[in-house]
Amino acid sequence: MEKVLTAHFANERYRRMDTYRQYGGYDALKKAIAMTPEAIIDEVKKANLRGRGGAGFPAGVKWGFLPKDLSRPRVLVINADEGEPGTFKDRVIMTRGPHLLIEGIVISCIALRAHACWVYIRGEFVREARIMDEAVAEAYAAGFLGKNILGSGFDLDVTVHRGAGAYICGEETSLINSLEGKRGWPRLKPPFPASVGAFGLPTIVNNVETIADIPWIVTHGGETFAALGVEKNGGTRLIGVSGAVNRPGVYELSAGVNLKEIIYHHAGGIKDGKALKAVIPGGSSTPVLRPDEIDVSYDIESMAKIGTMAGSGGVIVIPEGTCMVRALSVLMDFYAHESCGQCTPCREGTGWLKKIVGRIEAGKGREGDVELILDLCDNMLGRTICPLADAAAMPAQSFIWKFREEFDRHVGEQKCPYGNRF
């Protein structure tokens, strides 16, 4: 299978402008300059490119939400926050191929008729931000950014902006608030960012991997990209595999690759010859799967049919012998810490999930605690401004539905059956 993004990532100099151009870098931009914005958008639609940040919304359709009125400036914002536990593939693009992202930004801005772009990068990503800053400077020096790009009359400024490090700022309206210097709280929608976004302007927010795919789509055509994946899920995607596997890492695979194949073939199977106990398939917010559920295509529709999500492409592998109550407790600590506190069901719900799961894990669970967790989840799902409450409730529900016996044993025996000490 042809690699769209990672074909040259083994070359450590690929992040530099001269090496990137030796491999044909910025040729797609030259082609895009000769195209109309509408023609570029048509190719992206033909590509069946779904957003790679988690929601999976079709990129070309999202671009079409911008108002037709051109009297107000439009802007593009790149979501490089990547705060979902288990997800680390956008970092690879920014460190190994930053010019892929920059070239994608320029082409996308031509299509959107936008003349300003911010790359909002997670505050902890110090090295990634430095590499992006260096690449942006190289692009300005070579005439790929700034005034009159390649003599086309098109102007574009790109700014790398570091956030302060909050999971909630991966949500697009929180990100926009943070970019404007405000508290990173989600906004009520409508209005949607495509109408009123960053600095009150029509705004498209796209993930790093999504935009890095654009140069290949322009070069080879949308239909060719679509053929690399499956129906409604075009192209390849980067999948980060972590946990108890022999070869953890980031793999570029077809959007329709089988989840079992990802774990046992590409990632080398379970470490130390152990059996598989569970898989969190698309970042920590996605419902967990049992081993008998992983023989499934890793595309958005197929994963939805079995009650979970491909999400942000972060596959977390859990081996036999792992206490699932402890695993859920770790997740609930994270979501309680990262709730911004704006919505009561999230602020109180994540806090209570942390307390109840924590006391079950500690051998102090009470009769009815497991049902109480499920009741809390029911009162969180879909009742908040942003999906953070859902991100905590969905894994909590699925852990109990699929590993109920372990929770009951913790409560009944007042200890961890795996011998964990507290």
First and last CA, distance: 48 Å
Strand content: 5-15%
List low-confidence stretches: none
Oligomer: single chain
What is the string of SSEs from the N terminus onward? HHHHEHHEHEHEHHHEEHEHEHHHH
The secondary structure category is alpha/beta
Helicity range of the residues? 40-55%
Question: Strand order across the biggest sheet?
Answer: 3-2-1-4
State the main characteristics:
4-stranded parallel β-sheet; 422 residues; 11% strand; alpha/beta; 17 helices
Summarize the topology.
Layout: H1 17-22, H2 27-33, H3 37-46, H4 59-63, E1 75-80, H5 89-96, H6 98-112, E2 116-121, H7 126-141, E3 157-162, H8 172-179, E4 203-207, H9 208-212, H10 214-220, H11 222-227, E5 236-243, E6 249-254, H12 259-266, E7 276-280, H13 300-305, E8 314-319, H14 324-338, H15 344-361, H16 369-378, H17 388-413
Parallel strand pairs: 1-2, 1-4, 2-3, 5-8
Antiparallel strand pairs: 5-6, 7-8
Structure description:
It contains 17 helices and eight strands. The protein is of the alpha/beta class and 422 residues long. The strands form two sheets. Strands 3-2-1-4 form a four-stranded parallel sheet, with helices on both faces. Strands 6-5-8-7 form a four-stranded mixed sheet, sandwiched between helices. The longest helix is centred in the C-terminal third of the chain and has 26 residues, at 388-413. The model has no long low-confidence stretch (mean pLDDT 95).
